[in-house]
Write a structure and sequence with these properties.
two-stranded antiparallel sheet, mainly alpha, flat
Length: 247
């Protein structure tokens, strides 16, 4: 199993076409984003759909939290100040006074952030990044954006290895800054890293052109949209749109 994929790779969710998962989980996020607070049953329907998908894919809550904690706490930390700065009817919460409209905004932002983050986490947990790029390419996403994302994913680890080697070289030379004036070496390191990355990119581009690069990533496999994919999208659309309409 790929290190970036979690759960059971034999589950029906993992075996779905990447386009179906991308469209379905993006649709859940769009429904949540376009839902006002008074239509809260739609949030419940989105959360239920995510829990069902996670259960079918056997993605544990610990895995969801381990991946979501990189983004979600920051969003909620920023949103928690909204009740204190937004004008509205005052509400006493112990020694604190906040606005009712601010609390509603915080609740709405929190619900949308949680659903959107879990949707992205589930997509990443059940679909490898190259498959996501392949799905975006087949869905007619601008080719340039797909290529930029593909090369960033491919060479990010190479740049990180370069950074690790440069840090080891600094440590071997006794570099241990104790105040800001001693941090000027980091500027030179950053400049060297940029120049090395640029030169590497030029060499890679020349090598690709020499091998007949035609601005299209070669694929060994082809995507096939099966009946299970259509049923997955139909079930999601029926449940979410019905909940949104009734709410």
């Amino acid at each position: 199993m790929r290190p970036d994929v979690a759960g059971d790779p034999r589950s029906p969710i993992h075996r779905l076409d990447p386009r179906a998962k991308l469209l379905g989980l993006t649709g859940i996020t769009l429904v949540a984003v376009t839902t006002p607070l008074h239509a809260w049953p739609a949030y419940v329907a989105c959360a239920a759909a995510l829990l069902t998908i996670a259960s079918a894919a056997r993605v544990t809550p610990a895995t969801l939290w381990r991946r979501a904690r990189l983004v979600l706490p920051l969003v909620l930390f920023v949103g928690v100040f909204v009740p204190f700065v937004r004008e509205g009817d005052p509400v006493a919460l112990g020694p604190l006074t906040v606005s009712e409209q601010g609390l509603q905004t915080f609740a709405t932002v929190s619900a949308k952030a949680i659903i959107g983050t879990l949707s992205a986490v589930l997509l990443g947990a059940t679909t490898s990044f190259p498959d996501v790029l392949h799905a975006l390419e087949r869905l007619k996403t601008p080719k340039l954006l797909v290529l930029i994302a593909a090369f960033m994913y491919r060479y990010l680890f190479t740049i990180l290895d370069e950074v690790a080697r440069m840090r080891a070289a600094l440590a071997a030379r006794g570099y241990a800054p104790r105040h800001a004036l001693q941090a000027q070496a980091l500027g030179r390191v950053a400049t060297a890293l940029f120049l090395r990355s640029y030169e590497r990119g030029e060499r890679v581009h020349q090598a690709m052109l020499a091998r007949g690069w035609r601005e299209t990533m070669p694929r060994l496999d082809t995507l096939a949209f099966a009946r299970a994919d259509a049923l997955f999208l139909a079930a999601l659309a029926t449940a979410l749109l019905t909940a949104r309409a009734l709410a």
